[in-house]
Amino acid sequence: MPNIAAFLLALAIVGLVTEMLRRKKLREKYAIWWLVVGVATLVLAAFPQLLVMVSQVLGVQLPSNLLFILSILMLLGVCLHLSWEISVVEEETRVLAEEVAILRIQIERINNLSAAPQEGGAHHPESNI
Length: 129
Prior knowledge:
Elements: H1 2-22, H2 28-46, H3 49-58, H4 63-115
């Protein structure tokens, strides 16, 4: 019975991720992790002895310990990937903020030059406001 629950959960994960990809709610590079988890859960639910065999080959005492180790490693990988993504976005944001500040200064200089009184008594049309 637990295998059926795990299998249905894995199907739900794969279905949800696929639907989010289809609707463009989730980007492909993030969906890969979830699809890997879903497919791995499907395989382990369909063939529960596979986890037992792999744990024996790797010398892990309990199959559940191997499952926890793999889960922790996957979560560490996700955290590392997201930390890298945040670093890239922070750098891009800093560069954009600097460019906006430079453009703002240039616009102020242009406005100051055009607002300066012109020779010959003519005045700028915006000065009537």
